[in-house]
Specification:
The protein has 443 residues and is an alpha+beta fold. It has two domains: 14-282, no CATH class; 298-434, Beta Barrel (Lipocalin). The chain is 45% helix and 14% strand. It has twelve helices and nine strands. It has an eight-stranded antiparallel beta barrel with strand order 1-3-4-5-6-7-8-9. The longest helix is centred in the middle third of the chain and has 32 residues, at 251-282.
Length: 443
């Protein structure tokens, strides 16, 4: 018989203990969302009517000390706190704790937090909500008027089956992380998948690169635990010691562990999945839910345009005259003209409940001004509000009439309180992208 020398479990050195104390505090602070947003979301929940947006926003939170979008400055603050805490810990009476046990519980926290974060994005891709099919306005906007990020998002939106596939991969990776024996596989999937998301955000100037780095960092930590053993066993073909620490759950502790695990999986998988499915069919979060003016959806050519009684003929470089107008299925009107548009550059994922905050259709887009509107059907009046945050307070009040199903006449005042009169003629436009979705397109 041959003897196989399996190395004994390593003993923690003082240097390793110091490094561990730092990373323990760093990841705990990152995993527990220490921010005002956390308390706003949790205490702002209507727990009897919780939405998929509530759960997504909760799953996406990370430590934030500064207002605004995610920033690596928050990471620096966390690192400084972790360094100070590690030094204090090293001088306290708790410096000689069971490091194997603490390492185990840290891995539990990290892999559960990573699972929740990746599943949060997984379901809004699996039910293609994150990148919806382009709106009519987007389909009638020049390619050069989109930011790189908007082009990337719309390119994903036109292939919902691929978006669903990406979501399924994220959900699978998250589910694997809930179980200790498959956590390494889940972390490896996330490292490859989310690493690509990180590169894409850099290449297309997206706003998710900080959060993508957050997930990649957590995946690296989970993967690191088994990485050296896998390398020794598979690449070097050396004898490899298994994990030396085995948690011992008995009695009430075992029951409590099972209950907590079940609650987490139920809330972030089953309940969230059901709510997201319902939202996909009844309330997609990227576009407003309020219905638009009945039977008006489409693009309209501006056949006649008057301002203060004066007729303005069509001119390419005219910043006053409208070129075309789009009525969406929801309560949004977009106007194309040569008037300058300051681009709304919001490009990180947020799920809003209120229509006024749902800005995906105009984010990353120039060439058009987007207006939400309310309808006074009794008096045939439209009250338009510019949705772009750079044009707050800009309103138009327009009377409307419909001589026939293909014509809309608008009259009233524009944002500068000049009187305008506009005749819109509907264009029966066919979109090859839509025609080819069910069958082969013949050109």
């Amino acid at each position: 018989m041959s003897n196989t020398n399996i190395p004994s479990p390593p003993v923690w050195t003082n240097r390793e203990k110091l490094i561990f104390r730092f990373f323990f505090l760093f990841f705990i602070l990152q995993a527990i969302p220490l921010s005002v947003d956390f308390f706003k979301i949790v205490f702002g929940f209507n727990w009897l009517h919780i939405s998929y947006g509530d759960i997504f926003n909760l799953s996406r939170l990370s430590a934030k000390f500064l207002p605004g979008a995610d920033s690596f400055i928050n990471w620096i603050i966390v690192a400084v706190i972790a360094i100070i805490g590690a030094v204090i810990w090293g001088k306290s009476k708790y410096k000689d704790i069971n490091y194997d046990q603490f390492y185990y519980w840290l891995r539990v926290v990290v892999r559960y937090r990573l699972a929740i974060g990746i599943i949060g994005y997984g379901f809004i891709k699996f039910f293609p909500l994150q990148a919806p099919f382009p709106s009519i306005s987007n389909l009638n906007t020049s390619y050069g008027d989109f930011t790189d990020w908007k082009i990337f998002s719309m390119s994903l939106g036109i292939v919902p089956s691929y978006e669903s596939f990406l979501g399924a991969i994220e959900i699978l990776a998250g589910l694997l992380l809930f179980f200790r024996k498959t956590a390494t596989i889940g972390a490896a999937i996330i490292l490859v998948f989310t690493g690509n998301v990180f590169i894409s955000n850099l290449a297309y100037e997206g706003g998710e690169f900080v959060y993508a780095t957050y997930l990649v960092t957590f995946a690296l930590f989970v993967l690191w635990f088994d990485a050296q053993r896998i390398y020794n066993l598979v690449s070097l073909e050396r004898p490899t010691a298994p994990n030396s620490f085995k948690p011992n759950f008995v009695g009430k502790t075992k029951t409590l562990r099972l209950v907590l695990k079940t609650l987490v999986i139920f809330f972030f998988v089953f309940l969230y999945g059901f709510k997201t499915y319902s939202g996909f069919h009844h309330d997609p979060y990227q576009f407003p839910r309020t219905k638009g003016l009945t039977k008006t959806a489409g693009i309209y050519n501006v056949g006649e345009f008057r301002i203060n009684g004066r007729v303005l003929p069509y001119a390419v470089a005219d910043s006053i005259r409208w070129k075309d107008v789009v009525f969406e299925k929801w309560a949004t009107i977009s106007v194309r003209s040569d008037r300058k548009v300051i681009v709304d550059s919001a490009n990180y994922e947020q799920v809003f409940k209120n229509d006024k905050d749902r800005d995906y259709e105009l984010a990353g887009t120039a060439g058009r001004h987007y207006y939400s509107y309310t309808v006074d059907s009794a008096n045939h009046v439209l009250l338009l509000d510019n949705k772009n945050p750079h044009y707050k307070g800009e309103q138009l009040r327009l009377n409307y009439s419909r001589p026939d199903s293909a014509t809309i006449i608008l009259s009233g005042t524009n944002q500068q309180r000049d009187s305008i009169y506009v005749v819109l003629n509907k264009i029966d436009k066919k979109y090859p992208l839509k025609l080819s979705r069910r069958k082969a397109l013949k050109l």
